C-alpha cells in the first residue's frame, strides 16, 4: 500500500512537470529522487511527453499515466521542485507530499487574463522594434493592439476547444486581420514588421529550441514529439496569416 | 541611446513574456535580466564584430545559460524559470513563421532558406546551453569545491 502511494505520488509529480513544460531530464531526476527519498532505491522511470511509467526493479508493480495537454506554466514547475526539496529534507511526509501535489495540480494561481493580454501586447510591440532593427515607432501601437487581440483570441479559444491547432490558426488570423486593417486605414506602415512582432506571443520558438535540447540530451522521443508539436503550431500560425495574404 | 533602447526593450519584452508563461512574481525581475543579458550579447556582437548569426546566437545562449544558472543557485529555483523567458528575444520563432508563410504563399526557395535558418539557429542556441552547463560543471568542480 505504501509502495503504491509512493509510485502514485512520483507519477503525479512527473505528470504536473511535463504538463507545465519542464525539461525531461529534470522530470526523470525529480521522480527518481522522490522515489529514492521515499525508500524505493531501485525505481525505474520512463517518461515521454505523452505518457509516463514508473516501476520498481524488485516488485511487479508498475504505474502509468497519460498526458493530454502540454502548456508552459513555470509556477507549477517551481512549486513541484520546492516540494520535492522539502520531502528530501524530511520536512513533510509522503502523504502530505501527495496531498500538496494534488493541490498544485488543481489550483495554482496564474496571472489574470487581462494582465496576460497586456503582457502579450507589450511583448509584441517591443520585440517588433528589436527584430526590425530600425526604430519603427509608428507601428508600435498597431503591433501592440494586434498582438494583444491575437493572444486573447488564442487564449479564449484554447479554453473552449482544447485543440491547440485551431486556437493558433484563429489567433494568427486575428493578428493578420487587424494588422492589415490598420495598415489599410493608415495607422500602420510596415505590414510585415507588425505581423512578425504581433505573432511572437504565439510562435513556438521556445518549443523548437527545447526539442533540439531534448534530442541533444539523448531524449529522442521527447525531442521528436515536442518538435512535431512545434512544427504543427508554426504551420497553424502560417495558415492563419496566409488566409489574409491570399485574399487581400 | 540605441544601447538604452535595445536594453530596456529586451528587458521589458522578456518580463512580459514571463508573465504569459506564469513565472512566479518574485522571479520576474531576474527573468528580465536574463533576457537583457542574452539579447545584448547577441546584438552587441552583431553590430560590432559581425560574427555571423549562428555564433552570435550561440554566445547569446551561453550568456543566458550562465546567468540563469547563477540566478537559479542564488534563488534556489529551477533554472528554466530564467532560461525560457530569457531566450525569447533570440529564439527563431519569427523565422519559423516566415518559413511557413513563404511555404503557404508558394515561395518554396524562400521557405527552404528560412527552414534551414530555424534549424541552425535553434541548434546553435541548444549548443550554447550545453556549453553553459559544461562551464558551470567545470567551475563547480574546480572553483567551488576548492574552497
UniProtKB/TrEMBL annotation, chain A:
Tell me where in this chain the Threonine/serine exporter-like N-terminal domain is found. Answer: 9-247
InterPro entries noted in UniProt: ThrE-like_N, ThrE_Dicarb/AminoAcid_Exp
Tell me a GO cellular component.
plasma membrane
Please state where this protein is localized.
Answer: Cell membrane
| Residues that span the membrane, as ranges | 113-132, 139-157, 163-182, 194-212, 224-245
Q: How does it sit in the membrane?
A: Multi-pass membrane protein
Which GO biological process entries does UniProt record here?
A: succinate transport
- Grouped into one coarse class, the protein's main location is membrane
Q: Name one Pfam family in it.
A: ThrE
Task: Enumerate the UniProt keywords alphabetically.
Answer: Cell membrane, Membrane, Transmembrane, Transmembrane helix
| GO MF entry, a single one | transmembrane transporter activity
Give the family per the record: Belongs to the ThrE exporter (TC 2.A.79) family.
Report the protein name in the record: Threonine/serine exporter-like N-terminal domain-containing protein
Automatic annotation (TrEMBL), chain B:
Give start and end of each Threonine/Serine exporter ThrE domain: 7-135
Which terms under GO biological process does the entry name? succinate transport
Provide the topology term for how it sits in the membrane: Multi-pass membrane protein
Statement: the UniProt record of this protein carries the keyword Cell membrane: yes
- The residue ranges crossing the membrane are 6-23, 30-49, 55-72, 79-100, 112-140
Please name the Pfam families in this protein's record. ThrE_2
The alphabetized UniProt keywords are: Cell inner membrane, Cell membrane, Membrane, Transmembrane, Transmembrane helix
Q: Where in the cell is it found?
A: Cell membrane
- Which superkingdom heads the taxonomic lineage of this protein's source? Bacteria
Of the GO CC terms on this record, one is: plasma membrane
Q: Which family does it belong to?
A: Belongs to the ThrE exporter (TC 2.A.79) family.
The protein's name = Threonine/Serine exporter ThrE domain-containing protein
- Which species? Lacticaseibacillus nasuensis JCM 17158
